[in-house]
Specification:
The protein has 14 helices and 13 strands. By secondary structure, it is α/β, with parallel strands linked by helices. The chain has two domains: about 20-190, Rossmann fold, CATH 3.40.50; about 205-380, Glycogen Phosphorylase B (Rossmann fold, 3-Layer(aba) Sandwich), CATH 3.40.50.
């Protein structure tokens, strides 16, 4: 009987230990469930929104909670699943929406004590710092480009400086961010933009589009950019100024500009003044699903710009089209410091013209479409992002 009692006691002790161990595992698992907080993902289109969607897609097989300030529950959300739970706080009154988000997020943090919160925009960073730091919860701030290139207000700068990690998309954005806001380079991680290699592929030129834009027999230069007077540095005007010289070598060249904005009248007038208005086609807005067909029209993608990264370069190269960028911005990363394309002074029409002529001759190895696509997908495809994200989440 004594032996049986001892055996029962030992079994009970082992069971208690096992129960505590299993409880610990469950608790540890819940602690690993991260929280993402974004301004918006689905209500509008833009570089930041596209970047965030790529991150969520790469993460979609894991559990997470996502808080959205400006998206409502009625938006079309392709990431709805049993793994990721979305919390929407859209309100007609911005202050009310922000207050509701703050209250709900604070209650969530108190109850669940997640291991880390990912703040999806610098405008949300002060709130995330205020909520996380008293609770001892780590937070990471995701940055993109121009929103952090200059010196930030003290409250946002402090939120960055107190973040456990900061993510950004390129070396150029990292360097400008750190220099302007007194941030140590060692605390910033790179998570670059990617391209959807299934959506952007090489292919034959659409005869319908050739007819629509009157491109038969032409060598086609192309730019995809917002034509906004407040951001004139996409280089469309520089490329227009380069056309007279390019025409000397390629008389049938045409320049297809995709995008819309209030700067189009100025650009059209510039083309008129230079006598090249018959060579410049303003295609206006083109939906994302039709972009690949437009890239395939191009013999060269030209954007001597100032970018935080430049997803459009990846899209063009994934379609097998050689590219030209500026030489003092984040395009150094997608172009791999010039190994994958031409980088020229972004306000220099003569340099743009010389590079365009070289590209249109097609003799440089960087014009090889199959190699361009393969290399770009190796560095900036979906699998590359998933691998990089996995490493960063474990830091």
């Amino acid at each position: 009987m004594k032996d049986e009692l001892q055996a029962a006691k030992l079994k009970s002790t082992n069971l208690a230990i096992e129960t505590r161990h299993n409880s610990s595992l469950v608790l540890h698992s819940s602690l690993k469930k991260p929280v993402f907080v974004f301004l918006e993902i689905f209500s509008c289109e833009g570089g930041i929104q596209s970047y965030v969607k790529d991150i969520l897609q790469a993460y979609s097989t894991e559990k997470a909670d996502v808080f959205l300030l400006r998206d409502g529950a009625e938006v079309e959300n392709p990431f709805e699943s049993s793994a990721i739970e979305f919390h929407y706080f859209k309100s007609q009154n911005a202050a009310i929406g922000r207050t509701r988000l703050a209250i709900a997020l604070f209650a969530y943090l108190l109850k669940n004590r997640p291991q880390r919160v990912f703040c999806g925009h610098i405008n949300l960073a002060p709130l995330i710092q205020t909520l996380c730091k008293p609770l001892g919860i780590s937070y990471t701030v995701l940055t993109y480009g121009k929103e952090v290139w200059d010196t930030l207000p003290a409250i946002k700068q402090k939120a960055l400086q107190h973040a456990d990690r900061v993510w950004t998309i390129s070396r150029y954005s990292r360097d400008r961010l750190c220099l302007a806001n007194a941030l140590d380079l060692s605390r910033v991680d790179l998570l670059p933009c990617i391209v959807d290699g299934d959506a952007f592929t090489p292919g034959i030129k659409s005869s319908d589009l050739i007819e629509r834009y009157q491109l038969a027999g032409a060598k086609v230069l192309m730019t995809v950019a917002r034509l906004w007077s407040g951001d004139p540095y996409k280089g469309v005007d520089v490329t227009i100024r380069a056309l007279p010289e390019i025409i000397q070598s390629f008389p049938q060249v045409k320049y297809l500009v995709i995008g819309r904005g209030d700067d189009q009248p100025r650009l059209a007038q510039l083309a008129e003044d230079l006598g090249v208005s018959d060579r410049v086609i303003f295609a206006g807005f083109v939906p994302t699903e039709a972009l690949a067909d437009h890239y395939r029209l191009a013999d060269a993608y030209i954007m001597p710009s100032q970018e935080g990264f430049g997803i459009v370069y990846l899209e063009a190269m994934a379609c097998g089209v050689p590219v030209l960028s500026g030489d003092a911005d984040g395009s150094a990363d997608p172009l791999q410091d010039g190994k994958l394309g031409w980088r020229v002074p972004h306000r220099d029409p003569a340099a743009v013209a010389a590079a365009c002529i070289e590209i249109l001759k097609g003799e440089d190895p960087r014009c090889k479409g199959v190699w361009l696509r393969q290399t770009v997908l190796e560095h900036f495809g979906k699998s590359a992002l998933a691998q990089k994200l996995k490493v960063l989440l474990e830091l």
